[in-house]
Amino acid sequence: QVQLIESGGGLVQAGGSLRLSCAASGRTFSNYAMGWFRQAPGKEREFVAGISRIGDSTLYRDSVKGRFTISRDNAKDTMYLQMNSLKPEDTAAYYCAAAPSTINVPEIRRSRYNSWGQGTQVTVSS
Predict the structure, then answer these.
(1) Would you say residue 1 has pLDDT above 90?
(2) For residues 101 and 86, what is the distance between their CA atoms, to the nearest angstrom?
(3) Burial call 28-48: b when 16+ CB within 10 Å, e when fewer
């Protein structure tokens, strides 16, 4: 498994922006499809965005399309989530995750991810 550490969460007003980072170590980063998930209190953990091994293909949940951008830098073993036009309903703990993959496609299935970070809190005030 790969070790993952998120950073960049915080408190922001509605309409504001945040950039989350996920630093990976322990395995070859480019062997993994990567993803961001989030979990609000009392709710299931849900897929937010995913990116392929070399970063040329991405997937987003409908509610964040056009506002969030996932990216990765394989030379730095780091993944990012740029979040713009934040809404109160985006408030959640955000987790990065890694899915071992032999093909270059994003992964949406939570069950395929076998490494998880500890989470970073994002709070959007109205």
Answers:
(1) no
(2) 31
(3) ebbebbbbbbbeeeeeebebb
